[in-house]
Amino acid sequence: MPFCLKGQDEEPQDEYDQIPFGLKWRMYWGKKDTDPRTGEAVLRLGNNKILKTHCANTEYQALMLIDRQTSVPSYKVLAVYNRPEGKLVEYEAYPGRPLQERWSSIPAHQQNKIVSQLGRFVEQLRKMQPPKQCVVGDATLGAALDHRFGSGRIGPFFSIEAFQEFERRGHTVDDFPEKEIQMVHAPKKPYQLKFTHASLCPRNILVDDAGRVTALVGWESAGWYPEYWEYTQMCHMTPKTMGDWLDAMCRVVPRYEQELACEEALRSRYTGSIYDAPRSVRAPSPTPSQQQADQQAIEDKNTSDTSG
């Protein structure tokens, strides 16, 4: 038997990514820390570099997309490594404190500046063009990770109507007495698809001492949603103590009051955790053939000028 220097625990070359020696050295000397916003463990490598383990692909894929197509300030993805313990992602992280901690102490003129900046950022996101029409999903049109719907991933949905039907737990619109649900979820109501942060709230906005937004964080739920989703999510996720911030934001982003009332009615009926359970027996989950037919219908709608 030939002599072999390889260790028995060496990783398969074709399965996992090798970590560069320079990064290994920085990891050795890195400082273990906890993200105060999420409680997530991070490794600070110096020079505004951080390393995340077990990182959701929905987050770094969204960040790479907005980095290519917008000037919205956010963490920059430097490298992604497929490791045995999960995805290892190196970011360039920009300094700043959550707006939720600083808003009350910021002068009025700086508050106005921050709100104006956020309005421009949302406008940029909404101008992005989806790679395929009608598909509701994450940045790559895969399954989305939105904690509004429990702990699991959802979708993708091959129409906005299918997404809304999922929100209703499979029940028809006529099963709901609320007029807001009946109007917003009316069949074939013409909503557009927009790229959405989906967690735009003060704890996910970092600002510096000069009243400048340094980064938007918390992109794990971002993706392509109905045009009203940014507004309704923002309203639900903003603390009651920051009502003045929400009022100011409502002047710089499109408002959807009827859709907000619809969401409130649905949330009062269904908590997030209920979406982890099977759908209603009154309207069972679609069969594979039905899902394939829905997907084919959307593929037919997408013209040659899209990536699909």
UniProtKB/TrEMBL annotation:
<dbReference type="InterPro" id="IPR051678">
    <property type="entry name" value="AGP_Transferase"/>
</dbReference>
<feature type="region of interest" description="Disordered">
    <location>
        <begin position="277"/>
        <end position="308"/>
    </location>
</feature>
<dbReference type="InterPro" id="IPR002575">
    <property type="entry name" value="Aminoglycoside_PTrfase"/>
</dbReference>
<dbReference type="InterPro" id="IPR011009">
    <property type="entry name" value="Kinase-like_dom_sf"/>
</dbReference>
<protein>
    <recommendedName>
        <fullName>Aminoglycoside phosphotransferase domain-containing protein</fullName>
    </recommendedName>
</protein>
<feature type="compositionally biased region" description="Basic and acidic residues">
    <location>
        <begin position="298"/>
        <end position="308"/>
    </location>
</feature>
<feature type="domain" description="Aminoglycoside phosphotransferase">
    <location>
        <begin position="36"/>
        <end position="241"/>
    </location>
</feature>
<dbReference type="Pfam" id="PF01636">
    <property type="entry name" value="APH"/>
</dbReference>
